[in-house]
Amino acid sequence: MGKDVIKAWGFPVDRVFLAAGPCSAESELQVLETARALAGKGVGFFRAGIWKPRTRPGSFEGVGLKGLGWMDRARSETGLKIGTEVADPSHVEACLEYGLDVLWVGARTTTNPFSVQAIADALRGTDVPVFVKNPMSADIGLWIGAIERLANAGVTKLGAIHRGVSSSLEMRYRNAPAWKMPIELMRRMPEVPIICDPSHICGKADLVPTIAQEAMDLLFDGLMVEVHPNPPAALSDASQQLTPERFFSMVGQLQLPHEQSDSAVFMNRMSALREAVDELDSKMLELLGSRMEIVEEMGRLKTQQNVSTLQPHRWQAILEDRVRKGLALELSEDFVLQVMQSIHEEAIRRQEADRVDGAG
Ligand code: PEP
Ligand code: MN
User: Fold this and answer.
1) Closest ligand to Cα 237
2) pTM attached to this predicted model
3) What is the 3-state secondary structure (H, E, C) of the chain?
4) Residues in the chain with pLDDT values less than 50
5) 264-359 is classed CATH 3.30.70.260
6) Atom in ligand 1 nearest the alpha carbon of residue 199
7) Could you tell me which CATH class the domain 2-253 is placed in?
8) Which of the residues 101, 256, 266, 323 has an alpha carbon 20 to 30 A from that of 54?
């Protein structure tokens, strides 16, 4: 369990591992006030951004070095462990000097292997725990690559933070949750603890508890949440920060599921249902195999007649028809589109492969 790993690194872990604190350190008073409100209640570490990567220049870019002094003071006063985001070797150096208890690599930085490598090199020979946020885009290779670069530099205490991915299609959230990405990371790197940052996924304080609960249901080991004593006055990410009261009330209401249950009734019923699902999946795969055989036959006909692989009108008609049929079966439009697009992509790949083979 990731929670035990984090505990072994020396962090307090209550029911769930919690990182909490403001998006940015803004003033000594704000840092101390927030830390005081969070202390003594099972928070794993106090977070605050010191250097803020902003999409566009001109917004608040963080208080820099002096903020580390404020955090250090908050730690001495409250006993909370402290952590911040590092984006280049000079940040790492400053944080090591102040003895920060944990660092994290931000989403924009994970996107760039040069930056990640520079950070990894600066961390050589230290044993500070480092969390790696997923990159801005849904590219799991960059996320895994960043974790590997740090591991190769000798960082042994490595965790991951899922903060969603930027998307122009998903309007409800600031960053689409894209759960399949952390689920895949859990499968590929089961030894790496993973926490969820619902604040940057949601972009709005009201949505944070729902995403936090969803993360618990997906077996995340913890949460990193932006908490500010006066969110409307925050210098960055004002709309997504919770007050300490709201934060603790959310944490108190989290339902923590177990991965398994030893109830015999549950296990019997589940294994019957799983068998049914396994059988349907086999049928679905057989159907997909048959569909692809027909697709290849169509490809050969197209090649003989010098007809294009892509048939835009037919494709449009298929999509409309399948979405309509899907809706009648209570399958969402998005889901049917995704499934059909994957099938179509594979069909095109096969027809094109045949064309090339045939020409060769
Ligand atoms: C942050 O945690 O304050 C932050 C900048 O997040 P991200 O890197 O996920 O955008
Ligand atoms: Mn933020």
Assistant:
1) 2
2) 0.90
3) CHHHHHHHCCCCCCCCEEEEECCECCCHHHHHHHHHHHCCCCCCEEECECCCCCCCCCCCCCCCCHHHHHHHHHHHHHCCCEEEEECCHHHHHHHHHCCCCEEEECHHHHCCHHHHHHHHHHHCCCCCCEEEECCCCCCHHHHHHHHHHHHHCCCCCEEEEECCECCCCCCCCCCECCCHHHHHHHHHCCCCCEEECHHHHHCCHHHHHHHHHHHHHCCCCEEEEEECCCHHHCCCCHHHCECHHHHHHHHHHCCCCCCCCCCHHHHHHHHHHHHHHHHHHHHHHHHHHHHHHHHHHHHHHHHHCCCCCCCHHHHHHHHHHHHHHHHHCCCCHHHHHHHHHHHHHHHHHHHHHHHHHHHC
4) none
5) no
6) 2
7) alpha beta
8) 101
